[in-house]
Amino acid sequence: MINYLIHSDYLYQLPFPIHQIMIMNKAGTHIYNRKVSTVKIPNLTIEKEILMGGFITAIFSVVKDTLGSLSPIKYIDTGKYKIFFSQIPGNNGIVSIIASGDNIFIQKLLNRFTKSIDIDIINKLSALGAINDELLNKIDSFLIKEFPFLTILP
Asked: Fewest C-beta in 10 Å: which of 1, 14, 22, 116?
């Protein structure tokens, strides 16, 4: 109940599931991936998670090179799934969410999550060898704080 008072947006129920949250650092390396669900049973399996990081980095590079850096991609609509994006402050990476639907609420949540990531974590995202279980657990805690209705799946 306290979370509803702090973030009144959580009173809203998403009419579609969120499936996965990923983070790529500014070099395009896929460093964080969590399958999530608004229910306990997952209904999407992405087997090629490593390819998603390269795919997203390639799309962002093409858009930046052709349209300029002031033309950020907000989401990709694949028909069945929507992939939402938010830049980590200082262009230190990209956070993406894969969901089965879209609305303004999900983009607001993603932006809030991206802005809530601690500067220490942002600095470690680009450092070689800094990605470890402790860092992943810190990101998990930020994820649960900003998306309390999600369950991280094994």
From this structure: 1
